[in-house]
C-alpha cells in the first residue's frame, strides 16, 4: 500500500473512532442532564418550556463535542444568520450527510429549533431519547428501500405538531429534500412541498442555509468517516406571504440555496477542476495517467 494511501486510512480510522466515542459520551451526558432538568423543573414549568431547554442542552453539547473539540472536521460559516422580524421561522438546508444536523449548529448559535428527523433515530439509546426530550419531530418511513414512502396516518399529526411549534415562536429545522442527496457533486434534489405549504398557511419566513462538503465528513453508505472541510452560508430571509403557491415558493428557495452553495470555495474549486478536465484534448494524458499506463 502506498504511504499516502496508508496515511489516509489511518486518519480515517482515527477520525471514525473519535466521532463514535464522542457521540456515545455526548448522548449519555445530554440525556442525564435533560432528565435531571426535567425532574427538577417539572412542578414549575410547562412541557413546551422543558422541551425547548432540553433542545438547547442537546445542541450546545453536540456543538462542543462534534465541532468545537473535533480535530478532524473543520466548519466554515461564510456569513451570519440573517435578521428576521417575524417570529415564525423555518430554517431549510440541503442534505448531504448524517453530519449535517451536528455541523450546522455553529451557523445559527445561540438559536435553537425543532428538528424534523427520521423516526428510526428516536430509537437510538440515549441519543434518540434526547431527541424525544428536545421535542424534535419524527418522519416515519415505511422501509429503507422506499425512502419517500411514509407510514400512513403519521404525516398529518407530525405536521400539526410542527405548526404548533411554529405558532409559539419555535424555529423549525427542515431538510426539504427529504433524504440525503445521492449525488453530492450534482444539483440539489427537488424539494418536497409539505413545509412550504405550512409556511404559506402560517405566513412564515424561510431562512435558506446552503451546505457543501459534509458528504466528505461522513460519507453516505460508508462505515468510515474522514477529515475534511465543510461550508455553510445563509441566503436572505424569504417571506412566504409573497408567493402564490408551494411550488413557486419551493422553486425560489431552491434557486437561492443553489446560488449560495455554488459560491462556496469547495464548489468553486470543483467547477475549476471539472473545467480543466473538459479542456483536455482527446489524446492528452496527464503525468499520472502516463505513469499508470
UniProtKB/TrEMBL annotation:
Residue intervals passing through the bilayer: 12-33
SMART domains, alphabetized: PlsC
Protein name: Putative mitochondrial 1-acyl-sn-glycerol-3-phosphateacyltransferase-like protein
Start and end residues of each stretch annotated as Disordered: 262-293
Matching PANTHER family: 1-ACYL-SN-GLYCEROL-3-PHOSPHATE ACYLTRANSFERASE
UniProt entry keywords in alphabetical sequence: Acyltransferase, Membrane, Transferase, Transmembrane, Transmembrane helix
Segments forming domain Phospholipid/glycerol acyltransferase: 89-214
Gene Ontology biological-process annotations: phosphatidic acid biosynthetic process
UniProt-recorded Gene Ontology molecular function terms: 1-acylglycerol-3-phosphate O-acyltransferase activity
GO CC term, one of those recorded: endoplasmic reticulum
rRNA processing as UniProt keyword: no
One Pfam family, short name: Acyltransferase
InterPro entries: Plipid/glycerol_acylTrfase
Organism: Leptomonas pyrrhocoris
Amino acid at each position: 500500500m502506498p504511504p499516502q494511501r496508508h496515511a489516509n486510512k489511518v486518519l480515517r480510522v482515527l477520525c471514525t473512532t473519535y466521532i463514535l466515542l464522542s457521540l456515545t459520551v455526548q448522548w449519555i451526558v445530554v440525556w442525564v442532564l435533560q432528565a435531571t432538568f426535567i425532574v427538577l423543573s417539572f412542578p414549575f414549568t410547562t412541557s413546551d418550556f422543558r422541551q425547548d431547554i432540553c433542545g438547547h442542552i442537546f445542541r450546545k453539547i453536540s456543538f462542543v463535542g462534534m465541532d468545537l473539540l473535533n480535530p478532524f472536521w473543520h466548519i466554515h460559516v461564510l456569513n451570519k444568520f440573517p435578521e428576521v422580524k417575524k417570529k415564525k421561522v423555518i430554517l431549510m438546508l440541503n442534505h448531504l450527510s448524517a453530519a449535517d444536523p451536528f455541523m450546522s449548529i455553529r451557523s445559527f448559535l445561540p438559536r435553537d429549533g425543532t428538528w424534523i428527523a427520521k423516526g428510526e433515530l428516536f430509537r437510538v439509546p440515549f441519543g434518540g431519547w434526547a431527541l424525544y426530550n428536545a421535542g424534535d419531530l419524527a418522519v416515519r418511513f415505511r422501509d429503507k428501500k422506499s425512502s419517500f414512502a411514509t407510514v400512513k396516518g403519521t404525516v398529518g399529526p407530525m405536521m400539526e405538531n410542527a405548526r404548533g411549534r411554529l405558532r409559539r415562536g419555535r424555529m423549525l429545522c427542515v431538510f426539504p429534500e427529504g433524504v440525503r442527496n445521492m449525488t453530492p457533486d450534482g444539483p440539489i434534489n427537488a424539494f418536497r412541498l409539505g413545509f412550504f405549504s405550512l409556511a404559506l398557511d402560517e405566513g412564515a419566513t424561510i431562512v435558506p442555509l446552503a451546505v457543501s462538503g459534509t458528504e466528505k465528513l461522513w460519507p453516505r453508505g460508508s462505515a468510515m468517516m474522514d477529515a475534511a472541510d465543510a461550508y455553510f452560508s445563509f441566503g436572505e430571509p424569504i417571506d412566504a406571504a409573497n408567493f402564490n403557491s408551494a411550488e413557486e415558493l419551493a422553486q425560489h428557495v431552491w434557486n437561492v440555496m443553489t446560488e449560495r452553495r455554488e459560491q462556496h470555495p469547495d464548489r468553486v474549486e470543483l467547477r475549476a477542476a471539472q473545467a480543466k478536465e473538459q479542456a483536455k484534448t482527446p489524446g492528452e494524458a496527464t503525468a499520472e495517467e502516463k505513469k499508470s499506463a
